[in-house]
Amino acid sequence: MDNQEKYKYLTKINSPSDLRSLKADVLPFVCQELRDDIINELSHNPGHFASSLGVVELTVALHYVFNTPYDRIVWDVGHQAYGHKILTGRREQFCTNRKYKGLRPFPSPYESEYDTFSCGHASNSISAALGMAVAATKHQEDRKIIAVIGDGAMSGGLAFEGLNNASSTPNNLLIILNDNNMSIDLSVGGMKQYLLNLNTNNLYNRIRNCLSATLSGWGLLSTKRKNSILRFNNSLKSMLSQQQNIFEGLNIRYFGPVDGHNVEKLVQTLNDIKDMKGPKLLHIHTVKGKGFKPAENSATEWHAPGLFDPDTGERIVKSKEGKPPRFQHVFGETLVELAEKNEKIVGVTPAMPTGCSMNILMQKMPERGFDVGIAEGHAVTFSGGMAKDGLIPFCNIYSSFAQRAYDNLIHDIALTKLNVVLCLDRAGLVGEDGATHHGAFDLAYLRPIPNLTICSPYDEHELRRMMYTAQLPDMGPIVIRYPRGSGQLVDWKCPLEKIEIGTAREMKPGKDLAVLSIGPIGNSVEKAISQIEESMSGISIAHFDMRFLKPIDKNTLKKIGQNFDKIITIEDGVKMGGLGSAVLEFMAENNFSPKIKVLGLPDEFVEHGSVAELQHEVGIDLEGICNQIKGMLS
Fold this sequence. Notes:
alpha/beta
């Protein structure tokens, strides 16, 4: 069967205007074709799977009812938006999604006018959409603005800040809460339970409609009286439904819950409420992974499943036998090992227990592992509270997500030297998730903070030793950053030994040039030096694994300044403010004047692709390092 037959409707939809030309009764067939297309494409071009399947009907309904792109859909947690991309003129290019130079992994205004805002991180949709709604009012535009929030993002503090402001700022914003009881792992916290219990009372709806018609006939629904009538309306609803509605308590009209997989009902509901004045929230229930049974049954596993057979649902997993484990696995196993010996140790993660392997601790010691939901700032301050009273929290956050907790780290941890171990997973270039997810800035933004110790392991053995050192008494706040993916060592277990804080290692002596690295990228340096010394007779190159960015090893830097007039620094982070900057500052302050070349990420947002492709692009792969060393030597 060719695509024309298999996708009777989808092949004719090149933009939402084509979708809107269809009759409403064929929309279920459009949804089925869209779901099939996502399943088939992602089976051989991996991406975020279950989330996009869960919002197929919502995506179709939104583009059917609203005049996009003039009307604006602001997606929260952009891994929900694959169907959106396909319906907005990118179906032919969708095979390049997440590939180097192909479609971006998340919606981006740089890619399409239908992508109204960047959305790689969670919880920003309400605030951004509210800003657009206010702008539309100021410009006297009849532009509809819709924020789609879900996958646990409502637990983020920014979402509540947006809701609070929406209740007091004149606007006509529509918020759609996609409630699937999930983030990546199961959602946690009081908001989860609240959403499960929330309901709309039928008696209330009948009375409300009658009352609305009566008041309108009496001319009492003027803007002047709107707020007082809305409060009365909310009180009536609370009385009849015997529950307090948090949204209507904020003067945000609430509708739902509605079946998020009934596209015709969604279209009807959206048409009913789209022209209503004031902020409103439509609560829909969906199933993450809808339409593909393996994903429905195990949404966490199918969040980003990799390759799979679309007919059988069998995942195609490459054998890991004889290969090094992932850094996050070493973290998870080592944390349990340490916790078994130190009863003060606890684990904290903001909604990523499986991704960062905190789930290993949570399974073995459930009372000592805490998933706080999508709330990075809270995760850090919560850890600080536990550290204040004698616990040792290992707070694991993806590097790019930790940016959201910067003030908490300064004000609630560093200021009072609390012994929180901040483990930054996915540091450096992460690959196909692109600019919003690269851990590019952590070394630079953390280095100016007083009282912090900042380190990065060369390999898995060093990670274990750094974790062991961090939980020793009186260590204060320590940051350990490590990359996504596999390390170097198949035999990764080693004795747990203390590392002296602020000490570097001389990995190899030399006389012609010194290369200073931090983190696992030092392994590429090691290979580059070996290749160059084999090809250039008489050349010897020194290599230092700095290990600690702060406090940096001043004794080692003094030795390097005294003995080398050529230095290269290399780091898997932005060049400005990181290791290279620290070395330049030291040399200048101590009156050394070697020629220094700083290698790292450029002053721009690096887009998506495989880690190998991106390292080559920015010149920090094996070839790039070799070229820079040869250039310095010559």
